[in-house]
Design a protein that fits this description.
- The chain has four helices and five strands, in the order αβααββαββ.
- The protein has 127 residues and is an alpha+beta fold.
- The protein has one domain.
- Strands 1, 2, 3, 4 and 5 form a five-stranded antiparallel beta sheet that branches.
- The longest helix has 13 residues.
- It starts with a helix and ends with a strand.
């Protein structure tokens, strides 16, 4: 009996959960790689769409400039965190998220005016 319990515990500890969503094209982008691809005052909306696809969100800022937002997020949980979540039937769970946002601002002619890539990490607990 104790071997069965030990095997179950080891199996549960080795399990990991992962979910990703958003634009996978920006998954491996860095400030440096984006800066090599996008040139302020030169790169057009059509070129951005060819590189990154359709944006998640489009909106206008207070100055009337068009903003496109791309987002990628990857959430993971595993090992002891997954085991705790499993044994509490999902009541107590910890997850880790890595998230990227690429925001591109266009001028009235449809040329990149500015852009920003941000990366953030967070750990979430549910109780």
């Amino acid at each position: 009996m104790s071997k069965v319990v030990l095997i179950l515990v080891i199996s549960a500890l080795s399990l990991t959960g992962c979910a990703s969503y958003g634009n996978k094209v920006i998954m491996n982008e860095t400030v440096e790689t984006v800066s090599q691809k996008i040139v302020k005052g030169k790169t057009t909306k059509e070129e951005i769409r060819a590189m990154y696809g359709d944006p998640l969100k489009t909106e206008f800022n207070a100055n009337g400039d068009l903003m496109w937002t791309y987002r990628f997020s990857k959430e993971t949980h595993g090992g002891a965190d997954f085991l705790g979540c499993l044994f509490t039937l999902g009541i107590v769970c910890n997850r880790h998220a890595d998230e990227k946002h690429l925001v591109i601002l266009f001028d009235a002619q449809g040329t990149v005016k500015n852009f920003d890539l941000t990366t953030s990490e967070a750990t979430f607990s549910t109780i």
